[in-house]
Amino acid sequence: MQMTVSRTICLGFLVLISVGTLLLLLPWATTSGEWNNFLVALFTSTSAVCVTGLVVVDTGTHFSTFGEAVIVLLIQLGGLGYMTANTFLLLLLGRRLGLRDRLAIQQSMDSTALAGGQPLIFSIIAATLVIELTGLFCLYPVFIRDYSPAYSLWLSLFHSVSAFNNAGFSLFADNIIGYAVNPVVNAVITALIILGGIGYQVIMEFVTWLRNRLQGNRCRGLFSLNFKIVTSTTVALLVIGTLALLVTEFQNPATLGSFAPHENLLVAWFQSVVTRTAGFNSIDIGAMSDASLFIMIALMFIGASPGGTGGGIKTTTFRILLACTSMALQGKEEVLCYRRQIPPTRVVKAIAVVVGSSLAVVAATALVSFTNPAIDFIEILFEAVSAFATVGLSAGITADLSDFGQYIIIFIMYLGRVGVLLFMGALLGDPKPSSIQYPEEELLIG
């Protein structure tokens, strides 16, 4: 079997998950000093590598410092992506990148340009370190009030890495509920999540624009279509999510209703941010209304942006489908966005991503529901979408799922991280070009 780029990426993630599972199985990885349960180790390793955040045990009490260090390392490698991390190590060893390496990086980052050279890789690593260290220094003054200096430093590092990589892992038993109204924790974690979710290309493009502006070079300050779509869609979804959660949970005494009126906006904003990409929570998700859960399912399914550390169908895919609908209602054939025409290949790919993702979520929900009939359907659907979109939010049912149900969640987390199209490409191999052109024929739509 030929080792194609898609197969290399899928196999790379499987190797990371396998190594992580073996390390988390060791007695040194648990606080009890005993060998870990295989399913717990596999589930945790998959959730960390796929930067999801779903857990079947309490991370802070079940795992030792060694186990927590393994988890945060898996989160970092999973967030960077197998090809980026692997290429960085090869560059450190002095290897030059060939065309195959550039194609692999391009495909793993969902980029349309062959910009996989040494400057790109090192800039990604540098940006990651700068942002995560900034998050660490901002969180440390908050945690030092409640914990020892050494443990506060570890808490700051763990949560900074987890937030930027959109993983949602927390060492607190109640996640971030204890800091629900702390302005610093809310600001830092949401900023890290947004930066990690919008993608490296957007961050670098903004840095380049800012540098040109400071140098007085205004003629080179135009933003790309990708930048405009990602930023505008992200802002719109964050605002819509915040307002929707305010409306549906304002009078719920188990969630927003328990906070003062001036604190509701802060809590709703935090939950809106984490819903789309990372699995932190500052309120009890299981106590939320069905309307709120359904809104969050929609936000999770859309997810983050291409090249980012989050999952979902991506903001660009969602925006292309909206543009398709708008153009169809206007009776136009071309798909336009910001006075630019979207290539037909991109439109077809967007449709394929949505259809494939929807089928994966439906299949996972059906299988988990069949083996867990006592759990409410909305909670299982919420869990399946959260796993596929690598969000990590849960209504509190993850540990209650049957073994088969947990294996389904493991697979759907992996599928969501590598991507439906990439996974199918790994199974079927690269498409073969065809010189046959078939005749067109009209059919009824709608």
Write structural notes for this entry.
The structure is a single chain. By secondary structure, the protein is mostly helical. The protein has one domain. It is built from 18 helices and two strands. The chain has helices spanning 5-25, 38-49, 59-62, 65-80, 82-92, 99-108, 118-143, 149-164, 183-198, 200-214, 225-249, 261-277, 290-302, 315-329, 344-371, 377-388, 403-418, 420-428; strands spanning 336-337, 340-341. The protein has a two-stranded antiparallel sheet with strand order 1-2. β1 and β2 form a beta hairpin. α4 (65-80) packs parallel to α8, α8 packs parallel to α9 and α15 runs antiparallel to α17. The longest helix has 28 residues, at 344-371. It starts with a helix and ends in an 18-residue tail after the last helix.
- Number of domain units: 1
Number of strands: 2
Strand order of the largest sheet: 1-2
**How would the global form be characterised?**
globular
N→C terminal distance: 42 Å
| Gyration radius, in Å | 22 Å
The helix content, as a percent range, equals 55-70%
Strand-residue proportion: under 5%
The secondary structure category is mainly alpha
Write down the overall mean pLDDT.
88
Number of helices: 18
Order of helices and strands: HHHHHHHHHHHHHHEEHHHH
| Unreliable stretches | none
Major sheet details: 2 strands, antiparallel
